[in-house]
Structure formats: C-alpha cells, structure tokens
Amino acid sequence: MNLCFLTGQIVTWPEKYISIKGKTFTHFFVKIPNPKKGPPFLYIHASARQETGFQIVKWYAKGDYILIEGNIKICIDKNKNYHIEINIIRESPLVLEL
Predict the structure, then answer these.
(1) How many CB atoms lie within 10 A of CB 70?
(2) Cβ proximity of 47 and 65 under 8 Å
(3) DSSP for 16-28, written as a single string
(4) Which residues have CB under 8 Å from 25's CB, separation 6+?
(5) Which helix (H) or strand (E) holds 56?
(6) pLDDT above 90: residue 28
(7) Residue 23 backbone zone (phi > 0: left; psi -120 to 50: alpha; other: beta)
(8) pLDDT of 33-92, one tens digit each?
(9) Domains contained in the chain, CATH given
(10) Fewer CB atoms near the end CB (10 Å): N or C, the chain?
(11) How far apart are CA 87 and CA 35, in angstroms?
C-alpha cells in the first residue's frame, strides 16, 4: 500500500456498515479524473473506519468534492480485471467556487 493524496467527487452515498468482528466502517465510491488514454474517470472503492468514517457519513453527500489522504491498493482478480481501493486516514472538504 502507498500513501497518497487524492481529490475526487463522491459518486455514491456514504454508508455505514458493521464487520463480522463488530467494527464499524464506511464505504463509498470516489470518482477521480484520468489523465491518460482510456476512460475519462477512474472509480475507486473508498472505506474509512472509526471517527473518520462517522464524519464522512455525517457531513458528506453524493456529489460532494473531497480531499482524501489514505493508503491506496490495486487489486487484480483471476480474470485479470483490476480495481483500486483506498483506506482513508484523513479527509478534508473541498469547496469549488465559480
């Protein structure tokens, strides 16, 4: 896993879940621009635990922009398909004024 800072838009409503071990976490998808050839955006699985997760559920909604600090991981399945996951450590609101 690599530490990174990303700016993205929340694509799905953040939802709170409880794991099998009884710990709470928040899961949602984030859309970031792709500067390379191919699709114009990348969709990332984002999850946060503890206080950061509670803040995301309480203060953010679908369509909001967010600045994320977290550990990023690229997962590849058996069919050579990949998806990107980020475990959020810290988040900040991003205000875009026109």
Answers:
(1) 23
(2) no
(3) EEE-TTS-EEEEE
(4) 16, 17, 19, 47, 48, 49, 53
(5) helix 50-59
(6) yes
(7) beta
(8) 888 888 889 899 999 988 888 889 989 999 999 999 999 998 888 888 888 889 999 888
(9) 2-93 (2.40.50.140)
(10) C
(11) 22
Indicate yes or no: pTM above 0.85.
no
Q: With bands split at pLDDT 50, 70 and 90, how would you rate the model's confidence at 14?
A: very high
Residue 27 token pair: 């899961």
The residue with tokens 């909604």 is 61
> pLDDT-based confidence at 1, cuts 50/70/90?
low
Across the chain, the runs of DSSP E, i.e. the strands, are 2-10, 15-18, 24-33, 41-49, 65-76, 82-93
The Cα 11–Cα 20 span in angstroms is 26
Residue 94 has pLDDT above 80, yes or no: no
